[in-house]
Write a structure and sequence with these properties.
By secondary structure, this protein is α/β, with parallel strands linked by helices. The protein has 26 helices and ten strands. It is elongated, with a radius of gyration of 29 Å. The relative contact order is 0.13.
């Protein structure tokens, strides 16, 4: 094929070509995307749809047979209320689900990384259940209701005081069950609404195909999600059962409770074994599915039986000694779970580091390839930060703002509300991590400012070599925008600091297994006096408040993001990145919108290509959807397709963060599939997008030779720093948006349309 073919000078195409635009994160209206006042929906529904200009209103299509269409998928990432709540409650689940997709590119299935991430995800579900148990069963049912000062003036708790201890604990055990059921409902509902394309029989993901984003069925994980839902509910209920039965062993040890306790632990062990196994599809007659779904269903039935028996045993009235202190076994369970998580995180870090050493990635990776452990550690830190804030705030409410600690001994007659000391560790570690990371971020901004400005000066000097004196201020403003846009590449050391601090913080919590808390550690290691102990206790209190403020800040940020366009884009970049990948680790993570968007785009492009040519144009995150779509297209369709990306984070973010799935090898595969009919537009002022194959900064040699080296085209932004004769202000600095209004965008569309061979386009779908 002649790659230099251009559109004829009169602008008339000999074949029909459709430019299909795909927007980026945070979405935009179809009217804005198409630059047309009136549009009509030609396919799709309210969640995701394809639009075209309405004929007869304005300029419907460009002259010469080049048509335009837009795919609007923004509703797939949910609305303001859902996303704001998700930011708070589902953030740990999203982060651990993202961790498995950030593993190094080794050419295999990831080895132990998948099982380790799935086990770590299960511990987050257990931690969620333990935090709810800590509020409902421990603080309310065990520590508060038994004391008149705690029930005084609280009618909503007074009725529990008249119920015997056993039935009271059984009733309050329904709270964590309801919370787990809510997560189940959210996961199942999101799977039905957004992951609308079921897996083709026999094409669900297997252990050997996880590395290939072009694998048939890669974006069809309904079977995997259903399997994970069942296993995580079993883990959650098993955790609740062990807590209830452990308390009963302390109150009323009988052979029955020991048998039930052992059965609950056996169910947790079976769930852990099943989580280590990947979901594999085989022929099982009409109901094809994973080979171990039969075992998963049996586990669900057994878990239901054990839970019902545990509640029945707990509900039997008994007259034990009056409860004092914490619920027996609860604090040890929290500490043991955190110790298990510390072991899994260390194993994940070592495994990832080993695989990184033999990685086939040819580009620099974020955190030296340790992005997966960093995300997993962030998930654990966020989970316990929120748990500590929840448990301590409820304890603060119940004892009317007088939580006992070494700085505030328990008052006579007051309820002994004592949250687990592990949560105090989490608060102290969270406070230290937040402060150090904030300091590291400020230091990194200052330390790299001179170099970023020096490189930005080279760019503006090349673009605007001899500006008049009145344009110097605008030229300086452009230089500052370019320097700020380059800060994205300077975030690595900040994440390294966070990874190290979080790993240390989670690992040190294991000290609670031997009864050492923050204050005790101060006494034993440093020989400090009472004042130092008091100061440390006050520091942990401050950490709890800081974590609570961070949680509130996330909610506020979610609300503000729908009022401020700039804030919305910043939040959406992180959130849409986390929900782009399928839920193969944690079923309670926010739904994967790409499981609908990519197959839907592939189906639409295939249908349009059977009638003519298609230029798939993706902006920002839309370019990632476009690349994933091309990897799913049938081979016979590809000669009729070209790719236009602009403001694309394909290399700047995805290739470096997820090298096993969108690394340089995969990007070269995308180019090969479309015969290198690919143009990528980028700007130095863009903080998100960048080149895919060429160097980012001036003076650096190209990373790859042609044809990949010819894909990237740099756009000067702004076009000038002087005021045009017909204007009163200098041209605006576009940065990340828009690209499609730039004249060079139209030229790129025309060039790609000319590269599509009309002979191939007219051969029909059976070529």
């Amino acid at each position: 094929m002649n790659r230099d073919r251009q559109v004829p000078e009169d602008g008339t195409l000999t074949h029909e070509v459709v430019e299909l635009r795909v927007h980026g994160v945070s979405g935009t209206s179809a009217e804005t995307l198409l630059d047309h006042p009136v549009v009509i929906r030609v396919a799709g529904d309210d969640n995701a749809a394809f639009y075209r200009p309405r004929p007869g209103f304005g300029i419907s299509d460009r002259p010469g047979g080049l048509k335009i269409e837009a795919y609007r998928w923004g509703a797939l990432t949910a609305g303001a209320t859902v996303r704001t709540l998700s930011l708070l409650f589902l953030l740990p689940f999203m982060l651990v689900n993202l961790a498995v997709w950030a593993r190094p590119a080794t050419g295999g299935a990831g080895g132990l990384i998948g099982p380790l991430c799935r086990l770590l995800a299960a511990t987050l579900t257990a931690a969620f259940v333990l935090s709810v148990v800590g509020v409902s069963i421990d603080l309310v049912g065990w520590q508060c209701v038994g004391y008149q000062p705690c029930r005084a003036g609280r009618g909503y708790l007074a009725w529990l005081g008249s119920i015997p201890l056993g039935p009271r604990l059984a009733i309050l055990a329904l709270v964590p069950i309801a919370a787990l059921r809510l997560l189940w409902w959210l996961g199942a509902r999101s799977s039905r609404v957004f992951e609308a394309f079921p897996a083709v029989p026999g094409q669900a993901r297997d252990a050997l195909g996880e590395d290939r984003i072009d694998q048939p069925g890669f974006w069809s994980d309904a079977i995997v999600v259903r399997r994970l839902l069942t296993l995580h509910v079993a883990v959650g209920l098993g955790t609740l059962d062990t807590i209830l039965l452990g308390a009963q062993i302390h109150l009323r040890p009988t052979p029955v409770v020991y048998v039930l306790f052992g059965a609950a632990w056996c169910l947790l062990a079976v769930a852990a074994v099943l989580l280590c196994r990947p979901a594999r599809a085989v022929d099982e007659g009409p109901g094809r599915g994973p080979v171990d779904m039969r075992g998963v269903r049996r586990l669900r039935q057994a878990t239901t039986v054990v839970t019902l028996l545990s509640l029945a045993y707990t509900v039997v009235p008994l007259e034990p000694e009056p409860p004092h202190g914490q619920l027996p076994g609860y604090e040890g369970a929290v500490a043991a779970l955190i110790a298990v998580q510390a072991g899994l995180l260390i194993a994940l870090t070592v495994t990832t580091w080993h695989q990184r050493r033999r990685s086939r990635a040819g580009t620099s990776l974020w955190l030296g390839g340790l992005a997966g452990p960093m995300l997993a550690t962030a998930a654990v830190a966020a989970a316990y930060g929120f748990a500590a804030a929840l448990v301590y705030r409820v304890a603060d409410l119940l004892d009317r703002g007088d939580i006992p600690n070494p700085a505030r001994p328990v008052r006579p007659g007051a309820p002994p509300l004592e949250p687990p000391v592990s949560y105090r560790w989490a608060a102290l570690a969270g406070l230290a991590a937040i402060m150090v990371v904030a300091i590291a971020a400020l230091w990194r901004i200052v330390a790299t400012r001179r170099r970023r400005r020096r490189l930005a000066e080279q760019i503006v000097r090349r673009d605007f070599p001899d500006p008049p004196p009145e344009a110097l201020a605008q030229r300086t403003a452009v230089r500052e925008v370019v320097a700020r846009a380059a800060f994205t590449e300077q975030l690595g050391p900040i994440f390294v600091v966070f990874l190290v601090l979080s790993l240390l913080g989670v690992a040190i919590v294991a000290l609670d297994l031997i009864g050492i808390g923050p204050s005790e550690l101060s006494r034993h290691l440093a020989g400090t006096d009472g004042q130092a102990t008091t100061n440390l206790a006050l520091a942990t209190d401050a950490g709890i408040y800081v974590i609570g403020l961070v949680a509130v800040g996330i909610v506020v940020l979610g609300v503000v993001s729908y009022r401020s366009e700039g804030t919305r884009r910043s939040v959406a970049v992180l959130w849409d990145l986390g929900t782009f990948w399928p839920r193969t680790v944690h079923p309670f993570a926010p739904p994967c919108y790409a499981e609908r968007a990519v197959p839907e785009l592939a189906k639409r492009v295939s249908a349009l290509a059977r009638k003519g040519g298609v230029i798939l144009s993706g902006h920002s995150h839309g370019s990632v959807l476009a690349a994933a779509t091309l990897l799913q297209l049938p081979r016979e369709v590809l000669p009729r397709v070209a790719l236009l990306t602009h403001g694309s984070p394909l290399h700047r973010l995805y290739s470096r963060l997820c090298p096993a799935f969108l690394g340089d090898d995969v990007l070269h595969e995308v180019g090969d599939r479309v015969g290198w009919r690919w143009i990528n537009l980028w700007r130095d002022t863009d903080p998100i997008g960048g080149p895919v194959f060429s160097a980012h900064w001036p003076g650096q040699p190209p990373r790859v030779p042609p044809p990949a080296g010819t894909v990237d085209r740099r756009l000067r932004d702004p076009v000038e720093v002087t005021v045009p004769p017909d204007d009163t202000v200098p041209p605006r600095i576009d940065q990340h948006w828009p690209y499609h209004t730039d004249p060079q965008y139209e030229a790129a569309v025309r060039q790609l349309a000319g590269r599509l061979d009309p002979d191939l386009l007219h051969l029909g779908p059976d070529r």
